[in-house]
Amino acid sequence: MDPFHVIAPHLAALDQFMRDQALHFEPEIRDMAAYCLEASGKRLRPTLVFFSGWHGKEAVDDSLVRAAAVVEMVHLATLVHDDIMDRAELRRNRQTASRKYGPDAAVLLGDALFSQALHIASLFPTAEVCRLVSASTRRVCSGEIMQTLRRRDTNVSLADYRRMIDLKTAELFRTSCYLGAYLSAQAPGFAEAADRFGHHLGIAYQIYDDLVDFLGEEQQIGKTLGTDLATGKLTLPLMILLERIPETERTALLAALREGNTTSLASSQKRMHQLGIGAVVIQAIDDELAVALSALQPYAAIPAVQLLKELAALLKRQVTRLSAVNEGQR
Amino acid sequence: MDPFHVIAPHLAALDQFMRDQALHFEPEIRDMAAYCLEASGKRLRPTLVFFSGWHGKEAVDDSLVRAAAVVEMVHLATLVHDDIMDRAELRRNRQTASRKYGPDAAVLLGDALFSQALHIASLFPTAEVCRLVSASTRRVCSGEIMQTLRRRDTNVSLADYRRMIDLKTAELFRTSCYLGAYLSAQAPGFAEAADRFGHHLGIAYQIYDDLVDFLGEEQQIGKTLGTDLATGKLTLPLMILLERIPETERTALLAALREGNTTSLASSQKRMHQLGIGAVVIQAIDDELAVALSALQPYAAIPAVQLLKELAALLKRQVTRLSAVNEGQR
Question: Which ipTM was obtained for this model?
Answer without folding.
Answer: 0.89
